[in-house]
């Protein structure tokens, strides 16, 4: 009877987690869209806009190890709720400033830093809590629904943001975001984060491990897990080489091929639709039997598609064919991203001990956040001095080569002995 109640509770968690993530992701993306437009309208300066991006990325990179330590040492439910309340207060503060002295860049940058930190603590803690919220048979479903909510937000937020930005004032935007944040707090407060958790009990009066020692222990734990180590190295290579696509894609379509802004938007939308449909499919089907194998071929597909972005630069195509080609390519890209990420995330959820999840996921977050801006700056420079097609093809070959070496058949068989 108790087991049936736990499974019912896990089903409730599955949907409250998804709705909460959808609300907070949607709110954050609509806010980011509106605030970006507002900064550009206020200043007309690309550097002011870039400064807001730095205020988002830098605090996450610096504080990620501390978020991991907190997720492993303190109540995960409390961290998630406090982070969401802090988000609500930060938006409320910006709202008060807009009514009293008017919005300024300093107020916007300060709010961006706070939201970056609350989002970091919330996402690392939620990632560490999946195995405590749902039974292990439904981890793939939980990760797929999480990706689905992110995809919904990616598809809907620019449209909603664009409609609202033309129709309402900035304070109304902020009030909508605050209401969404309060709903997320209420949903999160009803969840039991320890339903299936296997965390070590804290003994009363036992001396807590110092923070630096605890972080070091998390790193040492990671180093002793060969498959986990390979997964993280592959993830970091993807994050770094993805910069070639992120910078190059817009540059090629807008600058080189002179694709109309609306048609460029269609290609971006196709990417989000691909992610959404594959997330729905994985959430409905039974758990993948060999996740590392699926991820491996998902990354190979990503590499091939990255190289294919350069094709219209090498072969002349009519405008309609070029746009259709990129719509199909980006749809495939969205599908491949989910086929890569979801199985990898499911494996990591199952392989990492509950007591180390926060620190392991925060190590991944730290390196990923540091590598992404570095990759984008490096590739931004390379696109100015080298032919775009060469950069994409070399990056594509590197990505495929790295995954074929790191996830070679012997490694896949170690992760999935049943393949023997």
Automatic annotation (TrEMBL):
It is a multi-pass membrane protein. Keywords: Cell membrane, Membrane, Transmembrane, Transmembrane helix, Transport. This is MFS transporter. It comes from Psychrobacillus vulpis. One of its GO terms (cellular component) is plasma membrane. The keyword Transmembrane helix applies. Its main location: membrane. It is found in: Cell membrane. GO terms for molecular function: transmembrane transporter activity. InterPro entries: MFS (IPR011701), MFS_trans_sf (IPR036259). Gene3D superfamilies: MFS general substrate transporter like domains. It comes from the Bacteria. The chain crosses the membrane at residues 12-32, 38-58, 79-101, 107-127, 148-168, 174-196, 230-252, 264-284, 296-315, 321-339, 360-382, 388-407. The keyword Membrane applies. It holds the Pfam family MFS_1.
């Amino acid at each position: 009877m108790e087991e049936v109640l736990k499974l019912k509770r896990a089903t409730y968690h599955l949907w409250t987690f998804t709705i909460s993530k959808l609300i907070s992701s949607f709110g954050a993306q609509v806010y980011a869209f509106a605030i970006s437009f507002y900064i550009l309208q206020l200043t007309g300066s690309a550097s002011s806009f870039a400064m807001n991006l730095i205020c988002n990325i830098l605090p996450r990179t610096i504080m990620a190890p501390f978020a991991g330590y907190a997720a492993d040492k303190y109540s995960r439910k409390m961290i998630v709720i406090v982070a969401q309340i802090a988000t609500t207060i930060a938006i409320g503060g910006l709202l008060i400033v807009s009514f009293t002295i008017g919005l300024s860049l300093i107020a916007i940058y300060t709010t961006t830093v706070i939201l970056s930190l609350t989002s970091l603590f919330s996402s690392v803690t939620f990632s560490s809590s999946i195995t405590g919220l749902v039974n292990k048979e439904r981890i793939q479903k939980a990760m797929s629904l999480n990706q689905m909510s992110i995809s919904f937000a990616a598809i809907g937020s620019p449209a909603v943001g664009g409609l609202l930005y033309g129709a309402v004032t900035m304070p109304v935007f902020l009030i909508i975001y605050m209401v969404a944040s309060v709903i997320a707090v209420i949903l999160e407060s009803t969840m039991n984060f320890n339903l299936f958790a296997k965390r070590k009990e804290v003994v009363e009066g036992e001396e807590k491990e110092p923070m630096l020692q605890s972080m070091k222990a998390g790193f040492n734990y990671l180093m002793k897990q060969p498959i986990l180590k390979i997964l993280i190295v592959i993830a970091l290579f993807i994050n770094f080489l993805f910069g070639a696509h992120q910078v190059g894609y817009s540059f090629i379509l807008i600058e080189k091929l002179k694709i109309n802004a609306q048609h460029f938007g269609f290609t971006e939308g196709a990417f989000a639709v691909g992610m959404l449909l594959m997330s729905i499919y994985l959430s409905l089907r039974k758990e993948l039997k060999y996740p590392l194998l699926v991820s491996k071929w998902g990354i190979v597909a990503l590499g091939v598609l990255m190289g294919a972005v350069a094709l219209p630069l090498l072969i002349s195509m009519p405008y309609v064919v070029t746009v259709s080609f990129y719509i199909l390519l980006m749809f495939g890209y969205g599908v491949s991203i989910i086929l890569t990420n979801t199985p990898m995330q499911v494996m990591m959820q199952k392989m990492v001990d509950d007591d180390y999840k926060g620190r392991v996921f925060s190590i991944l977050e730290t390196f990923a956040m540091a590598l992404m801006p570095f990759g984008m700056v490096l590739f931004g420079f390379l696109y100015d001095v080298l032919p775009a097609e060469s950069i994409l093809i070399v990056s594509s070959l590197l990505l495929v080569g790295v995954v074929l070496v790191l996830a070679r058949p012997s490694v896949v068989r170690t992760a999935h002995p049943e393949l023997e």
